[in-house]
């Protein structure tokens, strides 16, 4: 136990001086500690996730949505907002929205409407974005996600969803500051987006990024959003404020267009820190839009959005209300390309949460292992494959994949989905480790070996051929231990002085080296103890 | 030849007694003779003549029996208001902002007309972005009404003519194209009366069908929820022919109704004695000229005499229509106009210091005062703090107005009979005494509630005033009763025997 802090950090605290004079009054310290948490500002964050919908064509036009096409080649007359063109709703985008809403446990509105949100920007050709403000596709809902808390523990948490709406993406602007010109690419303009708005249920950066990761996995599973942050297919806005618990929420700032989980995490944490320091110095936080500079790790105010915008929302007059049906009303639909909510519910694939629960229920895996496996693309599939070939306990296999395999993979920038090591080979390596056929160190070497070379032999053969089998007979190990003891009288002395654990582990390391890491550690430890205790008796 | 109706022309083309090439030639000549009326802003004469020659060949093949197929409007000239997009033909909305804009696509209704063989002789003049009721606010100058107009011998002299009658608006150019015989039909747009008003002033038929029957794809919007492509024709039969040729669901306009529409031909032998004709009492508006009132009364008597039930009905919310319209119109205008920023197309100002300055300069130079005024008002109505008080209220009033019509029609009335305008066509000098907004509000009083309700309406020339100017009467029916409206209008037309404007003397000189 660390010694309690001697003086209260909060010099404003009334009893600070008393503690100072009588440092041992720990009950006073406790009081101050309590007060100090009361003084602490707490972050409150709400998120808006903009996810590009995985459809062939855009939300209101037939142009392709493929990423990376030459500039301005996927622009229909509607996308360029030529006068007289009208939006035609893409039924596939609606279906994607409905699927996502089901996964978010949202209430789906049988009738939703489209609105125009007005603002002038060069990459917004219409001068407004068609979105769903007043009557969105779905409202409410909640998402369970896994979070690594400050103590590095994996815990589950739930965040509430406010609404899910369909809307158009804008084009892209490229500013050439030197040449003083702006270049516009409209390929992205009009691609369907789902905007998922959350309640202010998050506390810090890692909390936010864990949630977004869960939603990302969910959308991938549903095939409704396959794009990555890198392609700009996923962007997050964070509304951040700080307040003291028990007090009303503070004034928030909005950090826009966060393009990676890391940026999200850093931007949120930076912004909380910034706002706290503004408030502690007696300042006020202003309601503004900020942007995150990943290089400096700071948020900065956006110059063109300094003033509060009035978006002058108006119903989109060119689109009739969007009607959705279920089994009881499907017959009323006159349009063939409508979405039946009940059908979508029936066809739901297992969501990440379901997969995790199944792994926990079926195999009793740890939350950490489950989290990592589900987080890795094809991680669960790989685990299940290995399970088929292996005789080891499930948690042992999961541990091996999560710690040993992924450790090597990450170091070599390899993803499980393109694993060069087949599940049956890995299963054999896992079993070699589990049975003690070879040692931990050589199992890692096996993984490296299979990763880097094209080996046709089975792992067991490789172990045999290289003489990597673990030495488990006392006959071989005892002389090694005797030799080590002889060579290290200082360590023996240390042992006798009572520092048994430290001495033993040093001895063991030396013995392992002596056996080229092949000796059975537990066995050798036992031998050392026996030998030393014998010596002691003398 | 130019006194023929569209229906007559088609039958003559079909039996070979008329040449499509000659017909187009005559129309082009007429258009040139009456050029000073300033009704065409972009001529398409040579292209239309080329197409007419091609059509003439097809007709002769049909007539000689080498071909069984025939295109309904093969080689027949039509005029298109300059707010319909026409591929490769400049489309300006009579605005600087689109002064050099050439669309890469064609509006659905125009395309259907062309697919049926129709040729476009030109794009017609209008109020900028269809905002107006006189066709006087155009970057190309005002349109002149051919009635009582003293044609000058040379193009220069007409400037000295002090005054003339306005054509009405905003689709004045299209009305004039039909009235002068330069085209056999024309498209306009009708948001608050922009087709019916000039049709009445120019003595032609003007039809606004049920909202959702005609595609708006390619029609540059004024107020999306009110805009309907309008049809100008020499006769009700012609209007029906054109309507049937272009109506129907369009996948590119989600507000067109999806039910299939049965095409129809109007009967020649019509009886109206089983009908209930409603006369809305609210349409006895102040400022109505005696000759209009007289025409209206005579028409009511006509129905009464043949045994139709004619009774006074009430549309109590009519009085709120103008104010409701101006809020909804401005709001949608503010929104619709926000795409004109000079980035993708259209006029772009030279000021490129910043995006904001570029926008401001572009839009200042591009739009006239009327358009800018409506944008300003519309943005005000849409502000968060004003939305409920203005836009939402106006939408509620709109519903009440639509409900008025539903109740009257639900109560047994088949067709409503009203005047189309308060007076005959006013003079240009009188019309321009006050601003566009004031005039638009008084001019649209009988036509605009119909757009708010979405119902079909047609104006038919009834008679000439004492000064020899045409007076139009309006027939209004329930939603999707376009055929019934047209049928009653045709019966009325048969009774009135209105003499269309004859400009054949111009051809002799």
Automatic annotation (TrEMBL), chain A:
Keywords attached to this entry: ATP-binding, Ligase, Mitochondrion, Nucleotide-binding, Protein biosynthesis
PANTHER family hit by this protein: GLUTAMYL-TRNA GLN AMIDOTRANSFERASE SUBUNIT B MITOCHONDRIAL AND PROKARYOTIC PET112-RELATED, GLUTAMYL-TRNA(GLN) AMIDOTRANSFERASE SUBUNIT B, MITOCHONDRIAL
Keyword ATP-binding assigned: yes
Pfam families per record: GatB_N (PF02934), GatB_Yqey (PF02637)
InterPro entries per UniProt: Asn/Gln-tRNA_amidoTrfase_suB/E, Asn/Gln-tRNA_Trfase_suB/E_cat, Asn/Gln_amidotransferase, Asn/Gln_tRNA_amidoTrase-B-like, GatB, GatB_Yqey_C_2, Gln-tRNA_amidoTrfase_suB_CS, Gln_synth/guanido_kin_cat_dom
Domain Asn/Gln amidotransferase per the UniProt entry, residue ranges: 381-532
UniProt enzyme class: ligase
Domain of life according to the entry: Eukaryota
Name the UniProt record assigns to this protein: Glutamyl-tRNA(Gln) amidotransferase subunit B, mitochondrial
Record keyword Ligase present: yes
Subunit structure: Subunit of the heterotrimeric GatCAB amidotransferase (AdT) complex, composed of A, B and C subunits.
Source organism of the structure: Magallana gigas (Pacific oyster)
SMART domains to which the protein is assigned, alphabetical: GatB_Yqey
Enzyme Commission (EC) number: 6.3.5.-
GO-annotated molecular function: ATP binding; glutaminyl-tRNA synthase (glutamine-hydrolyzing) activity
Gene Ontology BP, a term: glutaminyl-tRNAGln biosynthesis via transamidation
Reactions catalysed, as given in the entry: L-glutamyl-tRNA(Gln) + L-glutamine + ATP + H2O = L-glutaminyl-tRNA(Gln) + L-glutamate + ADP + phosphate + H(+)
Assigned protein family: Belongs to the GatB/GatE family. GatB subfamily.
Automatic annotation (TrEMBL), chain B:
Subcellular localization, as worded in the UniProt entry: Mitochondrion
Stated role: Allows the formation of correctly charged Gln-tRNA(Gln) through the transamidation of misacylated Glu-tRNA(Gln) in the mitochondria. The reaction takes place in the presence of glutamine and ATP through an activated gamma-phospho-Glu-tRNA(Gln).
Short name of any one Pfam family annotated for the protein: Amidase
Gene Ontology MF terms in the entry: ATP binding; glutaminyl-tRNA synthase (glutamine-hydrolyzing) activity
Subunit structure: Subunit of the heterotrimeric GatCAB amidotransferase (AdT) complex, composed of A, B and C subunits.
Reactions catalysed according to its record: L-glutamyl-tRNA(Gln) + L-glutamine + ATP + H2O = L-glutaminyl-tRNA(Gln) + L-glutamate + ADP + phosphate + H(+)
Family: Belongs to the amidase family. GatA subfamily.
Keyword field: ATP-binding, Ligase, Mitochondrion, Nucleotide-binding, Protein biosynthesis
Organism: Magallana gigas
Residues at the catalytic site: 81, 170, 194
Gene Ontology CC entries for this record: glutamyl-tRNA(Gln) amidotransferase complex; mitochondrion
Lineage: Eukaryota, Metazoa, Spiralia, Lophotrochozoa, Mollusca
SUPFAM superfamilies xrefs: Amidase signature (AS) enzymes
Lineage top rank: taxon: Eukaryota
EC number: 6.3.5.7
Domain Amidase residues, every copy: 23-486
Primary enzyme class: ligase
A biological process term (GO) from this entry: glutaminyl-tRNAGln biosynthesis via transamidation
InterPro entries: Amidase, Amidase_dom, AS_sf, GatA
Protein's recorded name: Glutamyl-tRNA(Gln) amidotransferase subunit A, mitochondrial
């Amino acid at each position: 136990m660390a010694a309690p802090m001697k003086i209260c950090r909060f010099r404003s605290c009334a009893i600070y001086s008393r503690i100072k004079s009588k440092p041992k009054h720990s009950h006073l310290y406790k009081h101050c500690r309590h007060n100090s948490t009361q003084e602490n500002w707490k972050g409150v964050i709400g998120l808006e996730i903009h996810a590009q919908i995985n459809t062939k064509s855009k939300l209101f036009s037939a142009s392709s949505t493929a990423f990376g096409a030459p500039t301005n080649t996927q622009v229909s007359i509607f996308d360029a907002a030529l006068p007289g063109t009208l939006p035609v709703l893409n039924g596939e985008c609606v279906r994607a929205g409905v699927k996502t809403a089901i996964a978010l446990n949202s209430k789906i509105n049988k009738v939703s409407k489209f609105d125009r949100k007005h603002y002038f920007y060069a990459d917004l050709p219409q001068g407004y974005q068609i979105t769903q403000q007043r009557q969105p596709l779905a409202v409410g809902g909640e998402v369970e996600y896994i979070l690594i808390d400050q103590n590095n523990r994996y815990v589950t948490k739930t965040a509430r969803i406010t609404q899910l709406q369909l809307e158009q993406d804008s084009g892209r602007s490229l500013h050439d500051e030197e040449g003083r010109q702006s270049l516009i690419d409209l390929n992205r303009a009009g691609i369907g987006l789902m905007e998922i708005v959350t309640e202010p249920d998050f506390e810090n950066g890692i909390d936010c990024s864990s949630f977004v990761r869960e939603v990302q996995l969910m959308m991938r599973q549903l095939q409704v959003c396959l794009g990555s942050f890198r392609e700009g297919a996923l962007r997050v806005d964070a509304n951040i404020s700080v307040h003291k618990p028990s007090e009303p929420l503070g004034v928030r700032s909005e950090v826009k267009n966060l393009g990676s989980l890391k940026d999200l995490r850093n931007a949120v944490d930076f912004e909380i820190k910034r706002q706290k320091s503004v408030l502690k110095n007696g300042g006020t936080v202003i309601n503004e839009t900020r942007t995150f500079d990943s290089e400096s790790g700071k948020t900065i105010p956006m110059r063109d959005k300094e003033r509060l915008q009035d978006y002058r929302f108006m119903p989109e007059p060119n689109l009739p209300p969007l009607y959705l049906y279920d089994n009881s009303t499907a017959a009323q639909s006159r349009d063939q390309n409508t979405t039946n909510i009940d059908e979508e519910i029936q066809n739901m694939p297992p969501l990440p949460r379901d997969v995790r629960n199944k792994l926990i229920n079926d195999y009793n895996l740890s939350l950490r292992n489950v989290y990592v496996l589900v987080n890795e693309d094809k991680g669960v599939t790989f685990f299940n494959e290995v399970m088929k070939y292996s005789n080891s306990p499930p948690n042992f296999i999961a541990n091996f994949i999560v710690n040993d395999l992924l450790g090597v993979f990450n170091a070599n920038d390899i993803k499980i989905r393109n694993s060069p090591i087949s599940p049956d080979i890995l299963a054999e390596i896992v079993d070699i480790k589990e049975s003690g056929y070879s040692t931990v160190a050589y199992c890692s070497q096996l993984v490296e070996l299979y990763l880097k070379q094209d080996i046709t032999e089975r792992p067991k053969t490789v172990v045999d051929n290289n003489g990597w089998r673990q030495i488990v007979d006392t006959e071989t190990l005892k002389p090694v231990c005797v030799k080590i003891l002889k060579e290290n009288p200082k360590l023996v002395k240390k042992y006798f002085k009572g520092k048994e654990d430290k001495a033993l582990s040093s001895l063991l390391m030396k013995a392992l080296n002596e056996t080229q890491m092949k000796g059975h550690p537990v066995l050798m430890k036992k031998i050392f103890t026996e030998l030393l205790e014998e010596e002691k008796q003398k | 030849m130019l006194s023929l109706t569209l229906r007559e022309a088609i039958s003559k083309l079909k039996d070979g007694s008329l040449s499509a090439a000659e017909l187009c030639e005559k129309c082009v000549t007429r258009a040139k003779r009456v050029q000073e009326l300033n009704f065409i802003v972009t001529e398409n004469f040579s292209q239309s003549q080329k197409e007419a020659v091609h059509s003439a060949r097809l007709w002769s093949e049909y007539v000689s029996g080498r071909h069984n197929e025939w295109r309904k409007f093969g080689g027949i000239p039509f005029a298109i208001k300059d707010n319909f997009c026409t591929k490769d033909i400049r489309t300006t909305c009579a605005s600087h902002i689109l002064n050099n804009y050439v669309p890469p696509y064609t509006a659905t209704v125009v395309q259907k007309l062309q697919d049926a063989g129709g040729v476009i002789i030109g794009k017609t003049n209008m109020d900028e972005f269809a905002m107006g009721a006189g066709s006087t606010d155009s970057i190309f100058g005002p349109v002149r009404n051919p009635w009582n107009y003293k044609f000058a011998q040379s193009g220069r002299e007409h400037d000295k003519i002090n005054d003339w009658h306005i054509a009405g608006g905003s689709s004045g150019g299209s009305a004039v194209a039909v009235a002068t015989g330069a085209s056999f039909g024309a498209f306009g747009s009708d948001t608050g009366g922009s087709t019916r008003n000039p049709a009445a002033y120019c003595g032609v038929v003007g039809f606004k069908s049920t909202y959702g029957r005609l595609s708006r794809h390619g029609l540059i919007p004024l107020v999306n929820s009110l805009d309907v492509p309008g049809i100008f024709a020499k006769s009700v039969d012609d209007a029906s022919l054109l309507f049937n040729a272009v109506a129907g669901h369009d996948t590119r306009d989600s507000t067109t109704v999806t039910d299939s529409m049965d095409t129809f031909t109007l009967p020649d032998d019509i009886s109206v004695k089983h009908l209930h004709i409603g006369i809305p009492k609210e349409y006895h508006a102040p400022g109505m000229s005696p000759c209009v009132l007289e025409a209206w009364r005579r028409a009511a008597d006509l129905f009464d005499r043949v045994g139709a039930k004619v009774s006074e009905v009430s549309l109590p919310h009519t009085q709120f229509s103008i104010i409701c319209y101006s809020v909804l119109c401005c709001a949608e205008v503010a929104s619709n106009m926000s795409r004109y920023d000079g980035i993708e197309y259209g006029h772009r100002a030279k000021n490129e210091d910043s995006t904001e300055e570029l926008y401001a300069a572009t839009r200042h130079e591009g739009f006239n005062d009327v358009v800018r005024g409506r944008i300003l008002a519309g943005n005000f109505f849409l502000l968060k703090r004003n939305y409920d008080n203005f836009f939402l209220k106006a939408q509620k009033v709109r519903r009440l107005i639509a409900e008025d019509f539903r109740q009257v029609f639900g109560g047994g009335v088949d067709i409503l009979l009203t005047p189309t305008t308060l007076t005959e066509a006013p003079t240009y000098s009188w019309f321009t005494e006050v601003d566009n907004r004031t005039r638009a509000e008084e001019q649209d009083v009988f036509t605009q509630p119909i757009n708010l309700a979405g119902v079909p309406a047609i104006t038919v020339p009834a008679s000439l005033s004492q000064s020899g100017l045409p007076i139009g009467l309006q027939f209004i029916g329930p939603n999707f009763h376009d055929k019934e409206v047209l049928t009653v209008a045709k019966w009325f037309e048969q009774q009135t025997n209105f003499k269309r404007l004859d400009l054949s003397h111009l051809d002799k000189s």
